[in-house]
Amino acid sequence: MRVTLLVFRTLGTLALTFFGLLAVTFVIGRVVPIDPVLKIVGDRALPEVYERVRQELGLHLPIWQQFLLYLQKVLSGDFGRSALTGQPVLADIARFFPATVELATAATLLGVLLGVPAGVVAAVHRDRWPDHLVRVFGLVGYSVPVFWLGLMGLVLFYAKLGWVEGPGRLGVAFEDLLEPTTGLLLLDAALSGEWEIFANALGHLILPASVLGYFSLAYISRMTRSFMLAELRQEYVTTARVKGLPEWRVVWRHAFGNCMVPLVTVVALSYGSLLEGAVLTETVFAWPGLGRYITDSLFNADMNAVLGGTIVVGCVFIGLNLFSDLLYRLLDPRART
Amino acid sequence: MAEPSARARTELSRLTGAALHPLVEVADLRVRFPTHRGPIEAVRGVSFTMGAERLGIVGESGSGKSTVGRALLGLVPPPGEVTAERLVVDGIDVPRAGPRTLRELRGGRASMVLQDPKFSLNPVMRVGVQIVEAVRRHRRIGRREARERAMAMLEAVRIREPARVFRAFPHELSGGMGQRVMIAMMLVAEPRLLIADEPTSALDVTVQMQVLAILDDLVAARGMGLVFISHDLELVASFCDRVLVMYDGRIVETCRARELAAARHPYTRGLLGCLPRLDTPARRLPTLRRDPAWTARR
Amino acid sequence: MSGLRAWLEAPVPASRAHARAQAWWLAWCAFRANPIAMVGLGLVLLLLVTALFAPWLAGRSPIEQDLANRLAPPSAVHWLGTDELGRDIWARIVWGSRITLAIVGIVVVIVGPLGLLVGTVAGYLGGWVDTVLMRLTDVFLAFPRLILALALAAALGPGIENAILAIAVTAWPPYARLARAETLTIRNSDFIAAAIVQGASTPRILLGHVVPLCLSSVIVRLTLDMAGIILTAAGLGFLGLGAQPPAPEWGAMIASGRQYVLDQWWVAAMPGAAIFLVSLGFNLLGDGLRDVLDPKGGRG
To answer: Which stretch of A135-144, A238-247, A311-320, B11-20 has the lowest confidence by average pLDDT?
Structure first.
């Protein structure tokens, strides 16, 4: 009963926020100082041609009507055409999105697998050297520009040490050899048993995923530490010790057990911010994902593509935020009443 | 000579317990906390022994009574430093015990009931699981038997629907029920000593009496020792056999509960004097005037 | 000096100004005890000093080209080497500190007051004003900051003012939220009621009572955010959306050095290191400030 109410409220907030996102992108689209009509007809066009194109684009209508038209188009999946590829923007995005998902997922996995234990260890050994190590490591992750780290990583691990593959998602020799089923190279390669391709793809994925993963790790370990410190101060931890439980059980089963639910929110938020970080990192690694699509479109002043990409990333971001909020309320036994 | 009955035996061991088999021996216990502004001594040279009896420790906030309770289980949180000439609980030398021995002590031989079940029970674990965890830690029994013992314990603390409470989360229980669960959890592994740190302070007055009655029954039936820590002098006097009054980290008075009215230390007398009485109404309630001399002793 | 110190550490303050001075002194002492925070403060001061004394510290012009000497490695003459147009990297970084400082400073000056205003008004007035403002803030909060700043900067066109605007527009929501939360806790206090009874107008209450109390958490958050602002600005610069060439903006320097990074790594590495140091400084400073001003957060 409560659950359905909660789901409805979340969907309502989602709709409202999505509406807001479209309003913002609409405004951004209108803010462009270049006259879109001129861009199409050129500055030597006749006034009638200018007026005709202007009518076609709907620019003669009052603003709120233009917005409604815009809403209509977006909701039907029409994000306009990319000036660069000539394709509908949504089709382009669908093509490039899986690569970004693969990158963000791999990075988040790294961040969680390394960041959560690091945060717990830091909290348990507060103010001693493991804590300082984790905090410094995380702090560096907070302060370094992600694209620069990627660049330096390429120089060190690819150019100088040769431990990983270079920019791009797959070696030239392997391109187009695989039928894209999910769009996630690693998964597709594993599913078809093409282990050579898998190894190559992994070699390409590991550096960008590690660079982005470092950010995820910094955030997740910091939040985990913070949550654990708060829980370790609670009375029920003393109770667990009074019962004579071994310390590892007190820390992991009791204290950490109470952190798991807020951590879900943290991981979801981290995933969202990794999608953003991917925008800059993909450029450095020539990773053919949504981020690179947006930045390439940016360089070509292709506002349709930029805004289309913004909407998609924005939607995923909003969706993740709200989903994690919902998940929190569903999982926490206290919040259920 | 006739065999002494079980009841007589319990009574006998209660009275002589302190002399023959002390459950707790404390000599010159000191607990220090280093802070930015210099070390703070929470406990300054406390000494007492007890057997299978009920010992009350009374004091105001900051008197060190809770710290004494925690020191008995080796649970003074760092950076606190515990030193004692002698600190033996059920035969275990606490300051010198290794972590494994301490874990044996806690829960299995001595345990502690904390003040507020809202905070002292794990909010995301079902109550039954928490009790089962306590018993399986100390007794090698299977899951089914552990569950049965947990249910039996819930019945022993007079919870009417043990099955429902077993599956419940702590926030679904009232304060009184939560505290009873806490008692069940702490007694299920059958320790010999129970430390109760303000066990009824977070409860409504009516519920307080119920919980105390349960505690009374269980402790008596099992022949356990009980350390009852509280700020409520009257409560402690009515419930315990002996009373220790603490002030500023020291014991200022030791006496039998029924001899409390004849207490000698000015602090105790002051506390007694502050208690309002219906049969001798006073126009003005006396307040406690603290004498720095009480602190400066030793 | 001992006279001043004795005055600051006197057990009973003589006047309100005296009490305030003592509070500042105590906060400073607590702050000073934290070595990490002092490192942060040092780094931030370094940025300020570098920006202020750029002409003298750099030694030469940041835009002067020397094509015969391009992509030279670090040496005694060019401390950090030269870039693809023969410009001295050290000089460019030093002068670029002014750009960084300008961006951070202006964004903070816009975002802080704006967030405070929206948050305190929403929290204090409540009702539909609160609902509308908070819905607006929530909607903005749910957006991905970098992407929106990017889209906005792209739309407005390259240029440092547009980059600043884009960052500011996406950065203010958390402060409104923060200020509102603080205002809600203060709103029903007795001293506010006393001020109302004395006839103080709403703006006066807001500015005189509510805002000063929200200030400390907003300042802490701002300092911590400055690192993020610097990184966002660098990202925009990397994509060509910030200060335009030949301005020595650090992010743009990384972008132009990118093509040579495999062999002449210093061209891209040095500006990145500068960004890292400054960002680190603000993070450390913010952490230290939070430990001092918001004790319930950290050490118990």
So the answer is: B11-20
Predicted pLDDT at A323: 81
Please judge whether A254 and B182 are an interchain contact, meaning their C-beta atoms are less than 8 angstroms apart. no
A271: part of which helix (H) or strand (E)? Answer: helix A257-285
CB contacts, 8 Å: B107 with chain A:
242-245
The model's confidence at residue B262, banded by pLDDT at 50, 70 and 90, is: confident
Strand residue runs (E) in C104-183: none
* Residues C1 and C79 reside in one and the same domain: no
pLDDT score at C203 = 83
Residues C54-87 have pLDDT tens digits of 888 877 887 788 788 788 888 887 888 888 888 8
Q: Do A244 and B137 touch (CB under 8 A)?
A: yes
pLDDT over 60 (residue B298): no
In a domain, C90, yes or no: yes
User: Are the C-beta atoms of residues B133 and A245 closer than 8 Å to each other?
Assistant: yes
Please state at what angle helix A257-285 crosses helix A89-124, rounded to 10 degrees: 130
- Asked if residue C71 belongs to a domain, the reply is yes
Domain A89-336 class, CATH top level: mainly alpha
Cis peptide leading into C246, omega within 30 of 0? yes
Which chain A residues are within 8 Å of B189, Cβ to Cβ? 243-244
Q: Using the beta-carbon criterion (under 8 Å), do A142 and C283 form an inter-chain contact?
A: yes
Is the CB of A154 less than 8 angstroms away from the CB of C261? Answer: yes
Give the CA dihedral C293, C295, C297, C299, nearest 10 degrees.
Answer: 130
Across the interface, whether the CB atoms of A246 and B103 are under 8 A apart is answered: yes
In this structure, of A206-215, B68-77, B164-173, B277-286, the range with the lowest mean pLDDT score is B277-286
pLDDT bracket for residue B4 (50, 70, 90): very low
What residues of chain A lie within 8 A of the CB of C238, using their CB?
145, 147, 280, 283
Cβ neighbour number for residue B9 with a 10 Å cutoff: 12
Domain with CATH 1.10.3720.10 in chain A: 89-336
Query: In this structure, is residue C298 part of a structural domain?
Result: no
Ordered structural domains, chain B, with CATH: 3-109+197-256 (3.40.50.300), 111-190 (no CATH)
Contact B42, B80 (CB under 8 A): yes
CB B183 within 8 A of CB B132: no
Distance from the Cα of B289 to chain A's closest Cα (Å) equals: 34
- pLDDT average, residue stretch C136-148: 81
Which residue does chain A place closest to B103, by CA atoms? A244
- Which of A24, A29, A298 lies at the smallest CB-CB distance from C143? A24
**What's the pTM value of the predicted model, to 2 decimals?**
0.83
Model confidence at B7, pLDDT cuts 50, 70, 90, reads low
